[in-house]
Amino acid sequence: MATYAGRLTEPAAAERQPANAGPAVDVRSLVRSFDERTVLDHLDLAIEPGEFVALLGRSGSGKSTLLRALAGLDHDVEGTGLVEVPRNVSVVFQDSRLLPWQRVLDNVTLGLSGPGTAGKGRESLAEVGLAGREQAWPNQLSGGEQQRVALARSLVREPELLLADEPFGSLDALTRIRMHGLLRRLCERHRPAVLLVTHDVDEAIALADRVLVLTDGRVDTEVEVTIDPPRDPSDPRFAELRSRLLAHLGIVNGGLQAAGPDSDVPSRRPEEVSR
Amino acid sequence: MATYAGRLTEPAAAERQPANAGPAVDVRSLVRSFDERTVLDHLDLAIEPGEFVALLGRSGSGKSTLLRALAGLDHDVEGTGLVEVPRNVSVVFQDSRLLPWQRVLDNVTLGLSGPGTAGKGRESLAEVGLAGREQAWPNQLSGGEQQRVALARSLVREPELLLADEPFGSLDALTRIRMHGLLRRLCERHRPAVLLVTHDVDEAIALADRVLVLTDGRVDTEVEVTIDPPRDPSDPRFAELRSRLLAHLGIVNGGLQAAGPDSDVPSRRPEEVSR
Amino acid sequence: GLSKADSNGTDGTNGSGAGDRKLALDAQLPITVPKGTTLTIGDPATQKALELSGQIDKLPFKVKWANISGGPQTTEAFRAGALDIGSVADIPPIHATWTGLHVRIVAAKFRVDPIHHPIYQLGIAPGVKVRSLADLRGKKIAYSPGQAQGALVLRVLQKAGLKKSDVTLVELPSTGDVYPNALAGKQVDVAPIGGVAIKRYLSKYGKDGGTTIPHGLRDDPGHLYTQVATLEDPAKAAAIRAYVQYWARAQIWMDKHPQQWIDGYYVKDQGLSEEDGRWLVKTSGHPDIPADWKPAIARQQQTIDLLARETDKPKLTAADLFDQRFAPVATDAIKNEAP
Amino acid sequence: MTTTTTATATATTASPVRVPPRTVTTAPVRRARRLGPGRPVRFGSAVGPLLLLGLWSAGSATGLIDPRILSAPWTVVTTTIDLVNDGRLPANLAVSAQRAFLGLAIGIGVGTLLALASGLNRLGEALIDGPIQIKRAIPSLALLPLLILWFGIGETMKVVTITLGVLVPVYIHTHNGLRTIDSRYVELAQTVGLGRWAFVRKVVLPGALPGFLLGLRFAVVGAWLALVVVEQINATSGIGYMMELARTYGQTDIIVVGLVVYGILGLASDGAVRLVQRKALTWRRTLAD
Amino acid sequence: MTTTTTATATATTASPVRVPPRTVTTAPVRRARRLGPGRPVRFGSAVGPLLLLGLWSAGSATGLIDPRILSAPWTVVTTTIDLVNDGRLPANLAVSAQRAFLGLAIGIGVGTLLALASGLNRLGEALIDGPIQIKRAIPSLALLPLLILWFGIGETMKVVTITLGVLVPVYIHTHNGLRTIDSRYVELAQTVGLGRWAFVRKVVLPGALPGFLLGLRFAVVGAWLALVVVEQINATSGIGYMMELARTYGQTDIIVVGLVVYGILGLASDGAVRLVQRKALTWRRTLAD
Ligand SMILES: Nc1ncnc2c1ncn2[C@@H]1O[C@H](COP(=O)(O)OP(=O)(O)OP(=O)(O)O)[C@@H](O)[C@H]1O
Ligand SMILES: Nc1ncnc2c1ncn2[C@@H]1O[C@H](COP(=O)(O)OP(=O)(O)OP(=O)(O)O)[C@@H](O)[C@H]1O
Ligand SMILES: [Mg+2]
Ligand SMILES: [Mg+2]
């Protein structure tokens, strides 16, 4: 089950560990460039089995690139590393990526087989609040509905590693909370390793064991979240974490009013993050 | 300049008002059904020129449907109403909707002509932090970058009515704040009427003059935001508005921890919002 | 009763610009060609002969040469009004008439000793035993209705005393190298092949047992024909008369200058080897341009009768196909020129 | 950019709201200039052919069209009736249809399989694609002698020739269609662990379906056209044979009947594929909607 | 689903990190089974034709292929050299190329314009589409008499015939291509207030370009093929004429030279269009990448 993303070279045989004991993800010195621009610059990342890691980062900082590399979809990544990928790995893409020519239910059960598949798919759709839409075409769904179908698809296969790229981005607050609950229950039941990309710092703190910030092509900041669930955003530890992370993202006083670089003064732009 | 969305019938001539004095948007009894499901159910909406309106609503509640109707893209909408559309109306679609075969700059300046167009486009791209990416293809951009290109495209034409469907959804906190600033500056300069769909209640309060909640196919709640800018999220009036709006969205105690319907107990699902 | 030939009544209207005054078909042929008269002529071999003999610029009218010959192409071009004179064998004028075109033969050429200088031979597939026409019984014979080779097959069967049902007629178009290939592939037992294809077939498949036998019939007619509407134009009629003269001289020139003809036409123009050219000249013998068309008309009538019977067509009178005013034109031309 | 005129008044409908959507017929006054072609016009596709028929009738009636070149429509009708009554047309059509369908069925199957083999595998592509391009570039008339050599002059040769003709557009369109499937869907298929066959079934075939169906539009018409060539060889029946015979005998009216039959067969086959297209591709939202 | 074997070891690279991306050549050991065809193999497209050539050579050398039916490759080479030396092949090719290019240019232009007129306008569609479908369904051999009638037997007729042949695939593919442009882009065009012409230039043409180029692949090959038909009529030069002449004289080697020329012309034209395809459609990310 140990396999590699992109052009990863494998560590010496001696370093390798039995599949179950080792980390779910362990990549080192990942490098990925597009033309001249280096997006991942000797990035190291390890995720333990069952660990829930949230990944923050500026727009264009390379989060999706990293996820694609871990999912083994990028053929031009270099580095050394070992990705212990359990049989079941699920990816939620940033675009919902539903096959437009398959109905919603078939999109959810894509790649599954055996009896009861349709039933499981139906159940999963009900969990994301889309009971009754099984036979719709993807383009008949609203943006948030499509996102939920993609979520249902990734959860129905009870993954052991979940790579999710902003899976809640187009959801309203209540639906988002429901989906958090869904994800949490899945984590409790199957203990998958999770790498969740999000832009919502509160969401990251509420869900993750560890929050990473991707800056300049590397994991720049790592914050362990030790608050016991249910984590209350009004908890001062929560607030402290929040403002720490926001500071790393360039915002000094938490909240929407940026006290960071004045937005009128041209400052270090997001695109400069990854030179 | 007065024109109609879909199958809107025009109010009697006597009711019509001179273009400049009347509301930018005034639709009444909008009805839109997909098959059996009524998504917009006799919805009334009026927006004054220069007014900034934020639209909240559950996923699948019909926000995008409403925007499409106002943009005159939906041919199956019924109702009476008058859409006073200024010459310049911009739509930011929920998907960024960049023409894949046009380079980023050409996407931004699409539909513009005359000298200086390229320069304006370049400037606009720089404003959204994408200077230097003018010649990239859309599919070479990250999700958030694509969203910013779409934003740049809608702002560069200095619209008098801006219909924006979650334009900041995939942006990190800092970039989002920058984009808020950009939008605010545009509003100050050109005073367009704005209808902004968002899932972020704080964003809605921070930016809008009025916040609407779409429920059951109608504008169910209307909240005027009277706090003077800059609006501080820690302001108690801000917090009060936030919790009122969240309550309308089904969340009783503000914050991420839902005290609403227990997420394990099957409850009124989002899709039931628009029977 | 679907045959179309009974619609003979329609008058040719799209002949190339008949003048205001129509020339009756029994009127004296005008001799002087008015200035500016143009003929479109599909007679590539004569064109080449005139070129080689240096006569081509002396034609007393303007000529547009078309590389068109043979039945289907000339009739198609006639219908389209794109051609004034076509060069064909015996069958096309018959078929043209059956399709409602009004045509007349204005020149006729035959071969001296035609039985020993046939255009076609019967190709026999390797391994098939046909020594004489009598052996054709029960054989698969390639047959192209409407083409000269098709008519030949019917005439051969008649001569052999066989009915169509005594053999298997396999319908194949006789274009290109279809017949030699069909023989070589043993798809048919017998097929009429002509010209250089005979030589080619024997040299390629002779060692496998492919043979040819003579059919013993006259297949030598070569005609120039035109539409009645064209003949009714006095200017064109005069030009055609002039062309027939040049045509006749060209045939004689070809006969007298075999080497020039081989080099200039077969080798340079048609891309054959010199040996092929020599073979063709040898097997085609010498031209015979008779002043009297009566025997030819009689033979044509037999052919018509046979075709009409076998292919279910109305009878025609052969004499109606020939414009006998032209019969002496060619012979006079050679007489004046020859000595 | 957009028009700056103020709206022209339309009748006020006091409360059109309870009327079910489909029954309201007030034409919408719309802001955005419609750029697409709009909704299909009912029987719109009949206009062109009918116009053509009209021109033809007018030309024949006024004598502008020489009946020896192109028979008049009414002549064609009576000739058709004659041909139907004496059984020639139906019999020939039946024989031809059998050949065409057989060739079509085999050609579609083989073409699709080759397209899959070549589209999903670089080795397959290296082996298959070039020869098919060569086959396509070589005039079928020139290929015929070889086909006759290998398959004789019987039915086999005829069906093989039709098959080869059908195979080319099916192959090229399907290959092109599947090659242009968005790579995002391929990535998705990889991440959900689709096997080869499931990948073909769930992603490749439906993704290449629009291309395949376009190829089919060429294939169905091509199958009929191939008859003209193959039925010149050792055929005593078939619509191509009927026409060839009529051509050599110059029976213009029968030729034109043949042409009309071809036109109708072509329009009908093409229309059938378009119908399938519309049904099978409901998931698409395109310019045409 | 995916394989459950543990990874096989590859050589350890202590620090491959500073190596510029392009130079690392270690084959990646990958998790997701690759479902697409992978990257293009260099000169892969030459394999099929070369294999064919190999078979042909082998068949000819061993005597399995009768040289009387299909000349040996070396015979073809020497014949080609002869034909080139005596100037016949270049001269004929030049004449044919001129006809083909002229017909191609006009056909592409007219086909594209018709496709736009018919694709963007229901009235245009009603008028144009049916007749083109009919044209396509009618055997060109049967159409030829009419074309001769209208355009004579000269160059005009030849170019028109080629044009008509080219027009059909260009029209159908472009029409289909633009009709299947995603409606979301049409909506976008409407909201940014694109005028008709800008819409055509920015959305329709680039959106239909993949379809157009596929049509072009058929058109370029079709133009060469049409020569076979038109150069049988009143032609004294051209590659089609050369082959027809060789056929009547049974010059197998020249016929085969013609076939090879056709094959090469077809492969080259098709390859050229594919190259344009690759260059012009860089914005796509497809299965083939
Ligand atoms: N195919 C490509 N060609 C060139 N540049 C690319 C390509 N794909 C991604 N990039 C660039 O790489 C950088 C990282 O992209 P990535 O999608 O990983 O960002 P991200 O962190 O996911 O951003 P977002 O939050 O906006 O989704 C971006 O600047 C993007 O423009
Ligand atoms: N073409 C369609 N056919 C059928 N149902 C549709 C279609 N388009 C939208 N719907 C349905 O209409 C409802 C409203 O859709 P809409 O896109 O307006 O939601 P929304 O409020 O924008 O949601 P989100 O926040 O998820 O984007 C959804 O339930 C959706 O499934
Ligand atoms: Mg991303
Ligand atoms: Mg929406």
Task: Explain the overall architecture.
The complex is a heteropentamer, with 2 copies of chain A (275 residues), 1 copy of chain C (339 residues) and 2 copies of chain D (289 residues). Chain A has 275 residues and is α/β, with parallel strands linked by helices. In chain A, 28% of the residues lie in helices and 24% in strands. Chain A has a single domain (2-88, 158-273), classed as P-loop containing nucleotide triphosphate hydrolases (Rossmann fold). In chain C, 40% of the residues lie in helices and 15% in strands. The relative contact order of chain C is 0.19. Chain C is built from 12 helices and 11 strands. Chain C is an alpha/beta fold and 339 residues long. In chain C, strands 2-1-3-10-4-11 form a 6-stranded mixed sheet, with helices on both faces. The model of chain D is unreliable at 1-31 (pLDDT under 50). By secondary structure, chain D is mainly α. The two termini of chain D are 24 Å apart. Chain D has helices at residues 47-61, 73-85, 88-119, 122-137, 140-151, 155-179, 183-191, 196-230, 239-248, 252-280. At the C-E interface, helix 2, helix 5 and helix 6 of C face helix 5, helix 9 and helix 10 of E. One magnesium ion binds at residues 63-64, 94, 165 of chain A. Chains D, E: Keywords: Cell membrane, Membrane, Transmembrane, Transmembrane helix, Transport.
